Amino acid sequence: MMEIPAIAGVLTAEQVLATGAAIVGMQEDSGALPWFPGGHTDPWDHIESAMALSVTGFHAEAEAAYDWSRRHQRADGSWPIRTVAGRVEDANIDSNFCAYIAVGVWHHYRITGDTGFLNRMWPVVWSALELVLTYQRPDGAFRWGGDQSGAKFAEAQITGNASIFQALDCAIRIAVEMGQPEEDFILAHAALGAAFAERMDTAFEPPSEHSMDWYYPILGGAMRGERAQQHIAERWDEFVVPGWGARCVHHRPWVTGAETSELALALEALGDTADAIGLIESIQHLRDPDGSYWTGLVFSDGKRWPVEKSSWTSAAVVLAADAISRTSAANGIFRDVRQTVLDLR
Description:
- By secondary structure, the protein is mostly helical.
- It has helices spanning 13-26, 43-55, 59-72, 95-99, 101-112, 115-133, 158-177, 183-198, 200-203, 212-219, 225-239, 257-269, 273-282, 311-325, and strands spanning 82-84, 87-90, 93-94, 145-146, 240-241, 245-246, 254-256, 296-298, 303-304.
- It has 14 helices and nine strands.
- Helix 2 (43-55) runs antiparallel to helix 3.
- The chain is globular and about 45 Å long.
- 53% of the residues are buried.
């Protein structure tokens, strides 16, 4: 029987399993994992939720989610930004949303060792990443998106690029496993890494008011070591509310479970496990008796907002518990991102 993550004094294995089951309860018959029952599905959060199912042993349900991605991928390798019950609400392309399939597929394969799954999903990953590469600018940064006509938006955002950095690393690992190393993936990863290392202040749009733009360079693996530690310390007091969690937006009295869990993942990747545990402990006020997690809380008046229990919030908690406890075979999916892979050429 598969071991389920737990964090001593914070979450038992039974509680983490219940969170996985709560995500299963939100899954549609098609395999889609919407934000919440009846809500919309986006291709990034769908994958994050599938990853939590893999960690909690719901492998058939996770594979149904990946099969949804396989069946709904468009001919150009993309997915619509937003669908509701199979109906497209936003047909545009988000480069980061499309790239994240590589992270999920590598994660599920690391847990299951299922080569049949990897063989089925490799064409999906390859097609998606080939599309994403067309969004890379000469300076190494990736444009955030475009429309179906082929027009690409100019802006390169910090969070999306940091996530693409991790996705490229996972795509390269899959390609090597398949015996089909992709030179283009390796060179794109190196160029993006150089953008983060040498010109982060100019290659990307200025950091927004959202905490994601603060911690994502670490979460995605583009920043490590002393530079990363200093980066976290500079804005810690701006975003972290002791006893409540991390703010989603720096000037609002609103903490969110997903951002807090992702920050915990970033800290764990830097070896700061104690603070990572403290963050996960601080958001247990968001836990519902059914195992799911409410999206956030306005701590100034004690009201949940939005009034929803989102699949991806629950998923982020599960992934953080796995990284902290180092339980599954994929517990290092965020920690072990390589800053350079040029040696694999």
